[in-house]
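STRUCTURE REQUEST FORM
Protein name: Probable cytosol aminopeptidase
Source organism: Neoroseomonas soli
Requested output: structure tokens
Priority: standard
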Amino acid sequence: MPDIAFVKPALPRAGAMVLPLAEEAPLAGLAKQADEATGGAISRGLEAAKFKGRKGQTTTLWAPGAGLTKVIAIGLGKPADIAATGAEAAGGAIAGPLAQEREAVVAADGLEPAFAASLAMGVLLKSYRFDRYRTTEKEEDKPKLERVAVAVSDAAKAKAAFAPMQAVADGVFVTRDLVSEPANVLTPAECAERCKALTKLGVEVEILGPKEMRKHGFGALLGVAQGSANEPRMVVMKWNGAPKGKKVGKPLAFIGKGVTFDTGGISIKPAGGMEDMKWDMAGAGTVVGLMAALAGRKAKADVVGIIGLVENMPSGTAQRPGDVVTTASGQTVEVINTDAEGRLVLADVIHYCIEQHDPRFMVDLATLTGAIIIALGHEHAGLFSNDDTLAQRIEAAGKAVGEAAWRMPLGDAYDKQIKSDIADMKNVGGRPGGSITAAQFIQRFVQGKTWAHLDIAGTAWSTKDLPTAPKGATAYGVRMLDRLVAEHYEG
Ligand code: BES
Ligand code: MN
Ligand code: ZN
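Status: completed
Returned output:
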């Protein structure tokens, strides 16, 4: 990840320069100085390239003079329309053109300090790369960006605005690293092991294995795990950041589905695209990254993150369709389809969370259903909640950071779809409203507590570049839930 520095506006002696420019605005400040130093080559170049400063428009000018090797102009749109998400997207748009530079100066002296910070955040987020397994890449193709100097008039203010963003970007990278890992490397035990790194940030990390799970009666989670040679784990991560006098006692709880690989089990999935199921632990990965973000910026809140890690495999020991399992809550489940495994994992983890931590609210994240992709595509996650205030807060937080969620309904009529003839419920409710019946299933384990469920099957991974994420693991949810905590639960 490149270092971000905020500096007083001054022309670089050499190298690359970025000019974030509003629509139809004349060059001013540092951009104007650069233009004058190059004898007007920059303004002539922009004119020739028909650069107007429209939102997202980028133009690169090579060697315009004054020692500059490269000038990248990025359009911000109409001055009145410049917002945090737009500034971030502008940062994202220049990450590619900057990749081969070692250093760059961004002439952000025309921007509010907070927007300058957002622009830097965008550069960071878009610069992510998962390159652990590339061994033959040529030196000249590797990204080289080491330092971005953001020139702003109030450098101290921009720096202060950026400090928590850096922690959140670190958290996003933690999530993307976990979610990108192949399932032969990231087994439940390995994922749990990697969570221990959060202790460096002051997070308490506790790992539970099958023995402890049996003790707590995790029949549903263990039923999913029993087909795999890789043992399940549950990780409990605690961040106690609420100021001493202000402890409310009840922590905020975030819970993640961590299926490190989902073959479907005996109800096996088709071969085409099954490799995608390595990221069926994205809910868990998001919770880990969120905890890293909160601890990294020393959030003034008590938060617990709990993830259930299993591998869903078909084998001689795997659970069968028709099996009945007893969950930690005592409720029984007829497992009609072994591919509806995420809800089984969440049922036990949610119950444990309530029993052990009595949370103020719970938000679970899960790549739970293919049906949510049919309903909402890749543009919104599905948001389900038994609490309007929490739902609205999550939706608003998501909107503010460019992680959109759409509220979906819950109701008794849907709940009826998961009635079983021989147990308290079955784990599938048929094709109609598949994401909703999955949420109804989870709701049966929340004991009426304030709860929200985010079905991130459509948003956790992207097959194309996004404004602030390269294709691959998005870490959807880290920024949204960090914002949720910051806005409402740190006062
Ligand atoms: N992990 C899948 C859901 C999924 C699908 C995530 C596509 C990401 C992309 C989940 O465990 C699953 O298999 N769900 C089934 C449920 C069905 C059997 C009721 C599904 O969506 O088909
Ligand atoms: Mn499945
Ligand atoms: Zn799954």
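Reviewer notes: The chain is about 35% helix and 20% strand. Residues 155-180 form the longest helix (26 residues).
Form closed.
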